């Protein structure tokens, strides 16, 4: 049984991952900004036998809030064996000339700085114990930059680089680092990107079978459950209809 912290567990990939790892008997710390959803999830997941939950709410964009949130963790929840840095989103799909700076800030702060801040809270304990596993959720957007999504792609490229850097710094302490690049996964991702425009969000997943959040949760669980001497450093997962980031075959 491991203690696993999943960021962005109120929705999509993070929620499915927390559910799967909980069902496998792990203790889970879930976080996200929507406290009502977190409370609901905590209640639901607590129904599993021998699974314990601690709800942690913070906005990963704010270092002070992150520090405060970690400060509220009871002693028995402070030994975090696995950190899943999943929280993140795309905001907008605009050329740089028309991009909104608040969208850029949200993506850079949430996808990059948030991941770093949370990692900073967890890494010292892992180093002391000479043990741990960090799973960073990047994207196929890191493999191929696309027009109008430049800032989002840049944040995911940064996640790839941070994963490589973490592995360089942490391997000697027995800490594994896994970087996961999902292709198109049908979650609230596009709804957030298009600011609640459901019709536009639906077009992203129309005419083919996109990945489900549970598919990525399975992959994450595979990496987390690998024997201790095995480090899956990188994993890219596409829906079968997606040949590369911008090529999807639709019926
Ligand atoms: P969702 O929108 O369904 O979930 C995003 C999660 O991240 C929510 O739980 C949200 O929680 C949390 N989150 C976002 N911003 C913040 C923030 N500033 N502070 C705290 N929590 C935050 O999207 P997905 O599940 O699809 O996305 C999860 C990850 O997967 C992201 O990093 C995304 O970039 C990546 N990804 C997604 C792909 C896709 O096609 N869906 C493909 C490749 C990668 P709350 O709103 O409660 O704070
Ligand atoms: C999400 C996948 O291709 O829409 O990271 O950027 S993509």
Automatic annotation (TrEMBL):
InterPro entries: NAD(P)-bd_dom_sf (IPR036291), Sc_DH/Rdtase_CS (IPR020904), SDR_fam (IPR002347). The keyword Oxidoreductase applies. It holds the Pfam family adh_short. PROSITE patterns: ADH_SHORT (PS00061). Keywords: Oxidoreductase. Gene3D superfamilies: NAD(P)-binding Rossmann-like Domain. Belongs to the short-chain dehydrogenases/reductases (SDR) family. This is NADP-dependent 3-hydroxy acid dehydrogenase YdfG. It comes from Chryseobacterium camelliae.
